[in-house]
């Protein structure tokens, strides 16, 4: 649980850079990749990660320019990457300019429940990690090179001239 804004920003810096790194490896052709007919495509899943930044955090009343949930699904990978970068930068600067640590205990209506701002930020992080994991699987199936997040991926071990260790 985040007790200071600085704690969140420190965690978010690593998490958002990891997401950015993953989105950077998307290609236009990969966006339509899906595993099952009912499942989200890569493009849809990536866009969900991007738009959640504004969708979730703006429920606190914080105002910033971010890619909108209702907006059209981009057909180019670079548009998704750019939208994430801009939404993220706008959110961080709005937080830095408007919030103090005391705000973390404010409560807001969230999806039929009452969540503190600290909880909202925690869920933002967990939600992104959850979908980033799903995206990683779809991207690997699409033949994309997967960057490591919490440790090297198979591709990165190979580039070190090593095999990924059995765990
Ligand atoms: Ni979701």
From TrEMBL:
<comment type="similarity">
    <text>Belongs to the DinB family.</text>
</comment>
<dbReference type="InterPro" id="IPR034660">
    <property type="entry name" value="DinB/YfiT-like"/>
</dbReference>
<keyword id="KW-0479">Metal-binding</keyword>
<dbReference type="InterPro" id="IPR007837">
    <property type="entry name" value="DinB"/>
</dbReference>
<protein>
    <submittedName>
        <fullName>Damage-inducible protein DinB</fullName>
    </submittedName>
</protein>
<dbReference type="Pfam" id="PF05163">
    <property type="entry name" value="DinB"/>
</dbReference>
<feature type="binding site">
    <location>
        <position position="48"/>
    </location>
    <ligand>
        <name>a divalent metal cation</name>
    </ligand>
</feature>
<dbReference type="GO" id="GO:0046872">
    <property type="term" value="F:metal ion binding"/>
</dbReference>
<feature type="binding site">
    <location>
        <position position="131"/>
    </location>
    <ligand>
        <name>a divalent metal cation</name>
    </ligand>
</feature>
<feature type="binding site">
    <location>
        <position position="127"/>
    </location>
    <ligand>
        <name>a divalent metal cation</name>
    </ligand>
</feature>
């Amino acid at each position: 649980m985040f007790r200071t804004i600085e704690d969140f920003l420190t965690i978010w810096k690593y998490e958002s850079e990891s997401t950015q790194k993953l989105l950077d490896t998307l290609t236009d052709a990969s966006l339509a990749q899906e595993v099952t007919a009912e499942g989200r495509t890569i493009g849809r899943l990536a866009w969900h990660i991007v738009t959640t930044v504004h969708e979730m955090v703006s429920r606190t009343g914080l105002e910033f320019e971010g890619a909108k949930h209702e907006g059209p699904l981009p057909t180019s990978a670079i548009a998704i990457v750019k939208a994430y970068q801009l939404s993220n930068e706008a959110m961080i600067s709005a937080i830095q300019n408007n919030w103090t640590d005391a705000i973390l205990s404010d409560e807001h209506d969230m999806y039929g429940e009452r969540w503190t701002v600290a909880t909202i930020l925690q869920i933002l992080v967990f939600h992104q990690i959850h979908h980033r994991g799903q995206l990683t699987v779809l991207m690997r199936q699409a033949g994309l090179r997967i960057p490591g997040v919490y440790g090297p991926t198979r591709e990165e071990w190979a580039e070190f001239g090593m095999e990924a260790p059995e765990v």
